[in-house]
Every structure is written in C-alpha cells, then in structure tokens.
Amino acid sequence: LLSSLYLFHTVEVSAVEVNTPEEMFVENGTDAKLPCTFTSVEVISSAASVSWSFQPEGAATRISFFYYFNGRPYPGKDIPFKDRITWAGDLNKKDASISISNMQFRDNGTYICDVKNPPDIVVKPGEIRVRVVEKGIRP
C-alpha cells in the first residue's frame, strides 16, 4: 500500500492599512498638508518605506514624486513638485504625511500614499482627491 504525506505550510500574513481623507479642498497659493496614517502589527523597521504619487485630473498615468526610506526623504526633482515637498510624517507614530507648498490649480488631482512595512503586505494605498480653489471660496 502506497501512502502519501502532504505537508501544508501556513504563513500568517498581516496587512498595512493606509488611511487618508477622500477629498481635500486647498486654497490657491497656500500650503497643504496631505494626511496619511497607517496601521501595522509589525514593528516599524528600517525597511519601512513611503512613496507618494500624483495622478493629474483627467490624466491616465501617475507621476511618482516622493519617496521616504531609512529615515530620509527623497523628494522628486521633477516638475510639478520640484522644491515644494516637505516630509511631515513620523513613521514611529505611523504617520506618512507630506506637505506641499504654494498649491496651484495644476495640482488638482489624486494623490496616492503607499506605505510598506515588511513583512506586512499592503492591501490598498490611500488616495486623496485634492481640489485647489480660489482663495476665500472654500466649500
């Protein structure tokens, strides 16, 4: 009689949950803090990273414009955000927020915050729809 032995290896996988507001209104010419927080059951390690990308209103592609890794911010050097991005988060407090100075109408669109904290996996990045409005006309 031939018997078979099957070994099943189960791996516990937990997820990083990223939280952002759905929509923000920002006055033209002002600075905006884009809030992004996350939850993770893992200790925040030196391998944790944050990336931000931008999808302009009406565009099909995303522009990656900011990366944070190993305690250091790496703002993109490309237009439209050159010299306008500041790290405003603290990974130890599970905050991956950034600030953008001098918001303009061309900054309308969706901002995507993606947090990685290995071995946790990311289910879904946070997305914020930003609408830049005339000063004094905030809804």
TrEMBL record:
Instruction: State the compartments where it is located.
Output: Membrane
Tell me, in one coarse class, where this protein mainly resides. Answer: membrane
Chain ranges of the Ig-like domain:
14-129
Q: Which residues form the signal peptide?
A: none
Membrane-protein topology: Single-pass type I membrane protein
Does Cytoplasm show up as a keyword for this record? no
Entry-linked SUPFAM superfamilies: Immunoglobulin
Q: Which domain of life is it from?
A: Eukaryota
Provide the alphabetized UniProt keywords. Disulfide bond, Glycoprotein, Immunoglobulin domain, Membrane, Signal, Transmembrane, Transmembrane helix
A Gene Ontology term for the protein's cellular component: cell surface
Q: Pfam families recorded for this chain?
A: V-set (PF07686)
The record's listing under PANTHER family reads: MYELIN P0 RELATED, MYELIN PROTEIN ZERO-LIKE PROTEIN 1
Query: Family per UniProt?
Result: Belongs to the myelin P0 protein family.
Query: What's the name of the protein?
Result: MPZL1 protein
Q: Which organism is it from?
A: Anseranas semipalmata (Magpie goose)
